[in-house]
Amino acid sequence: MSGKWKAYLVYPLLQQGSRIDLHADQNMKANGYQRNHNRKESRFMKNIYVSDILWVSKLEECLIPIQEILTIKRGERSGWNALFYPPENSGIESEYIKPALRNPALLKSYTVQSDSAVFCCHKSKDELRQSGHTGALNWIEKYENIRNGRGKLLPEVLSHRGGFWYELDDTAKADFVTALNPDKRLFVSMPEENTFVNQQFIQIIVKDVT
Questions:
Q1: What is the pLDDT of residues 109-166, one digit of tens each?
Q2: Which of 88, 161, 183, 203 is most buried, judging by how many CB atoms fall within 10 Å of its CB?
Q3: Rounded distance between C-alpha atoms, residue 82 and residue 78, angstroms
Q4: Are 140 and 166 in contact (CB under 8 A)?
């Protein structure tokens, strides 16, 4: 069997608070699960089920890496929700308000509608002034002198992402989404429209392989 295949898969189950001896089988890997400081045993947040998947080697010639056809990544982190998820009466011009997905608990069907709105502006403050878009301009300036919990101004905290400090990357539209922490509800939904996806989701984007 090719070295890229592992002998076991480890599945999180639904029950809480079990322990497992990781030294019982040298072939078993549980990377990504946090171990406690006791070397004799490791405590997990969830039970795990270990399954022999040696049969996968029979399908090796029929499989391709998923990254060849899909981009799978976590949704976008806003950095400051009050700025990027404004209320309906914010006064921001409609062209800077985009549909968004924020709450994974609302994934209840194979398709999903946006449950929120996100502020997305790719114009400079000068461009907003020239356009007469004072709603977006006033909204940005409202947060210019706000400090985070560490005493740093938001323009300093958010500027590391590139672009304007008040700018979100809304270019990658998810073709499918699933919850970051699915618990008992593990399934994939398709957004009904181009939607900004926040960090509580995993977004799946189909690559153009033509």
A1: 889 899 999 999 999 999 999 999 999 999 999 999 999 999 999 999 998 777 899 9
A2: 203
A3: 9
A4: yes
